[in-house]
């Protein structure tokens, strides 16, 4: 990147092997598990690459997904928003995605979703790592489902580990026929003590 527009972020020089396939696929693997935009510098840190090289990789992937490298256009885009990068469904298919999400509102929750929702309801605000520790399985996909259905919402980052925390929504209370969380039945004493789970967030993030 030898020339810069005013205000453009300046990165270190990009190595000659800027776009090896293994780096592209590794970057894709990381992007598939993030739930919020990630800065190029953070991705570079976990991949052990210069930030400038990762910026080039991200630009290449975004162009590939748009069909600008000879392949078909994908049903998803890689975009830079809010100072970070994340994969989104393509705007061209927003109507189909919207129908899928709305249809899911009427479908019955699975047992895994119900168990995860119960943990969030009684231990909120709670991180995915702590939910996973209580249930003994990874809950990333289940939490995304509950978010899509509007039953839970983000509640800010944990002050110690920085992981996103989740809580139930007003829609949850409406669907449960509750006025407030104080109306929940006394199930909490049967869940594990959260004080013993302080070290598990990183394992499941």
Question: Major β-sheet, in short?
Answer: 3 strands, antiparallel
Strand order of the largest sheet: 3-5-4
Straight-line distance between termini: 34 Å
The average pLDDT value, as a whole number, equals 79
Return the structural class.
alpha+beta
Q: Count every helix, treating DSSP H or I runs of 4 or more residues as helices.
A: 9
The whole-angstrom Rg is 20 Å
Structure description:
The chain has helices spanning 21-31, 40-47, 51-65, 94-106, 111-123, 128-135, 140-148, 170-176, 201-204; strands at 76-81, 84-89, 126-127, 152-157, 164-168. The longest helix is centred in the N-terminal third of the chain and has 15 residues, at 51-65. β1 (76-81) and β2 form a beta hairpin. It is built from nine helices and five strands, in the order αααββααβααββαα. The protein is globular. A three-stranded antiparallel beta sheet has the order 3-5-4. The chain is 43% helix and 12% strand. The model is unreliable at 1-5, 11-16 and 194-205 (pLDDT under 50). The protein is of the alpha+beta class and 205 residues long.
From the structure above, extract its key features.
205 residues, alpha+beta, three-stranded antiparallel beta sheet, two-stranded antiparallel sheet, disordered N terminus
Concise overview:
The protein is α+β, with helices and mostly antiparallel strands and 205 residues long. It has nine helices and five strands. The radius of gyration is 20 Å and the shape is globular.
